[in-house]
């Protein structure tokens, strides 16, 4: 009886937090970094000049798992969001600490929806919002081109520019400041650099946000650690290497690594999510263009939705100044 009561309370609490969460993917106490950003070429920094990247990412899920990784019984519905990331990077033509200085800014637009129903009750709800989401700035980002590897490290922060109101069902922002430390590594397994192993990490720290219940209370989501990896092979499509197809296996693993603070958030278990997928890139080196597509399927999730991620877009580098 006690376990049934606790499960019912968790269902109601979880649905309430999901519905009043923000985008992208603010279900439960989740942090700000959305997996699926990186994969192949994770350690590569663009050549000097101005680089624009557009990344459209869709996450969709039809189930919410409990702390053991099992689907929560009695809770049905769907959750999904789209985010369109506009990434601006400028790489000056000089070295700093022996590496390339490559600061960047992400301006994000998002929209999403949630429908939820607890079976056997009259508890149900809908939520979602659209518009400008939180803005990400990485003022420190350094990359090094080594003989058999490309490596980068960075520090960034999330500014709560997205709409957020405690208790609202149409939030788009997180309602708090965040920070992260990032790394990226591309290890070339063959002399011609055609075969690569890639690893990116993101360790995020979160500020506090105001919540509606209890009124005036603040919660701080726990820290999260994300790994994104990829194994890729480049296949030249012509003798002049003007067209290259790159294909590979990719995946991500994300864990909450520290406790939440706040009356409501402290009741929720640590979350995690794990996915496998594929990535393909169509690269035009003379035009400094790269088109990409990625698909991930989550095979395990705890205290977290379990779903799928699709990401696609392009990156274009303009040599400014030319040289």
Describe the structure concisely for a colleague.
The protein has 323 residues and is mainly beta. The protein has one helix at 2-19; strands spanning 49-64, 75-91, 95-96, 99-101, 104-118, 124-127, 130-132, 135-145, 149-159, 178-188, 195-206, 209-210, 218-219, 224-236, 244-256, 272-284, 289-302, 305-318. The protein is built from 1 helix and 18 strands.
Summarize the helices and strands and which ones pair or pack.
Blueprint: H1 2-19, E1 49-64, E2 75-91, E3 95-96, E4 99-101, E5 104-118, E6 124-127, E7 130-132, E8 135-145, E9 149-159, E10 178-188, E11 195-206, E12 209-210, E13 218-219, E14 224-236, E15 244-256, E16 272-284, E17 289-302, E18 305-318
Antiparallel strand pairs: 1-2, 1-18, 2-5, 3-4, 4-8, 5-6, 5-7, 5-8, 8-9, 9-10, 10-11, 11-14, 12-13, 14-15, 15-16, 16-17, 17-18
Can you tag this structure with a few keywords?
1 helix; single chain; 18 strands; mainly beta; Lipocalin; 323 residues
Describe the structure.
With 323 residues, this protein is mostly beta strands. It has a single domain (2-318), classed as Beta Barrel (Lipocalin). 6% of the residues lie in helices and 54% in strands. The chain has a 12-stranded antiparallel β-barrel with strand order 1-2-5-8-9-10-11-14-15-16-17-18. Strands 12-13 form a two-stranded antiparallel ribbon. β16 (272-284) and β17 (289-302) form a beta hairpin. The relative contact order is 0.20. Residues 1-28 and 115-126 have low confidence and may be disordered.
